[in-house]
Amino acid sequence: MAQLLILTSAGDDDVLPALGLLSHKTRQIPAEPASLINAPTSDVIFIDARQDLASSKSLCKILHTTGVTVPLILVLTEGGLTAVSAEWGVDDVILEGAGPAEADARIRLAIGRQAQDKSGNNKIQASGVVIDEASYSAKVHGRPLDLTFKEFELLRFLAAHPSRVFTREQLLSEVWGYDYFGGTRTVDVHVRRLRAKLGDLESLIGTVRNVGYRFNVYDDDNERFPAPVAG
Predict the structure, then answer these.
(1) Which residues contact 116 (CB under 8 A, 6 or more apart)?
(2) What residue ranges do the domains of the chain occupy?
(3) pTM for the predicted model, two decimal places
(4) Rounded CA gap, 116 and 111, in Å?
(5) In which order are the strands placed within the sheet that holds 44-48?
(6) Which three-class secondary structure state does DSSP give residue 112?
(7) What are the pLDDT tens digits along the chain (231 aa)?
(8) Same fold yes or no, 3-119 and 123-223
(9) Cβ-based neighbours of 113, under 8 Å, separated by 6 or more
(10) What CATH number should be reported for the domain whose range is 3-119?
(11) DSSP string, 40-83
């Protein structure tokens, strides 16, 4: 049974009726950026693009920007199929009138493809940083980083969700685990040590004031050295 999330602006409208005939757990929230901040965990996200294609395309881009990694499936009318392209960044499309067998198959395939992608690629590469999860090693432009286990886990987690902001509490939960009883100060200490080891690329770990930290992504060499951020 998969956890499904539907993003829609249609209120209580039944976006994809076939889902009601399946055993998957389904949640529905407004298709607005503000709703994504506390969005429930999901295995697949369905985006209701039946009525407003332009807004749906923008929402897909926002989802990628915030670091969402689960498969995205567009729900469309037949007329909307002509507007969708690879530029949208979605994993699949489904017509609103699709039957339960088709909907279930698309869900299984989307989750299966993602699992295969993860198992076949043990490296994370972003902004000059290469993280090899299999060997627990990391390099910056070919230079090995001498990291402790927690420093590696913190860098790996942030780099796996580029540009996404995490609170200190979230980082404690994800990197140190729910059974860790230390305070959030330990996150600040590890971020400071990690930045020191990154050297000239310390700005890759960005601070969002009064919120937490994120892994910054730069498109070219000219963007790698922005003004330092306090904190």
Answers:
(1) none
(2) 3-119, 123-223
(3) 0.53
(4) 9
(5) 25-30, 3-8, 44-48, 72-76, 92-95
(6) helix
(7) 789 999 998 876 789 999 999 999 999 999 887 787 778 888 999 999 998 999 999 998 888 777 777 889 999 999 999 999 888 888 899 999 999 999 999 999 888 877 766 555 567 887 788 888 777 889 888 888 999 989 999 999 999 888 889 999 889 888 887 666 667 889 999 999 999 999 888 999 999 998 999 999 865 444 444 444 444
(8) no
(9) 71, 91
(10) 3.40.50.2300
(11) PP-SEEEEE-SS-HHHHHHHHHHHHHTT--S-EEEEE-GGGGGG
Tokens of 139: 């390099």
Chain position carrying tokens 């689960």: 70
CB contact set of 98 (below 8 Å; sequence gap of 6+): 16, 18, 106
The CATH number of the structural domain formed by 123-223 is 1.10.10.10
With H, G, I as helix, E, B as strand and everything else as coil, classify residue 26.
strand
Contact, 213 vs 167, CB < 8 A? no
